[in-house]
Amino acid sequence: MIALEYLAGHEQSDFEQSPSLIATNIGKSAGHVRRRMRTLSAAGLVERTNDTAGYYAITELGRRYLQGELTDAEITSLRTFDPDNY
User: Fold this and answer.
1) Cβ-count burial of 21 within 10 angstroms (0-12 exposed, 13-18 middle, 19+ buried)?
2) Cα 6 from Cα 71, distance rounded (Å)
3) Above 80 in pLDDT, residue 13?
C-alpha cells in the first residue's frame, strides 16, 4: 500500500497526484502505479479526482484503513474484494 501511504502522508487534506508523479516519488514504475490506483479506486480507498489529468486522492475509507479504524463490515468487504470483478 505504498501509493496509498504516499497520498495519505501529506498535510494538505485535498492532496492529489497523478500515477506518474506517485511512481516517481515511491520508486515504482508508472504502469505499476496506474494498475494499483485502479484497483485501490475500485475498492474505494482512493478516488479519481480529475478524469482528464488522471489525478487520484485518498478517500476517508483509505485514511481509516491506514489508521486501523475500519468497521468489521468494511474489513470483510475489503477482504472479499476481487479486483478482477470491477
Assistant:
1) middle
2) 23
3) no
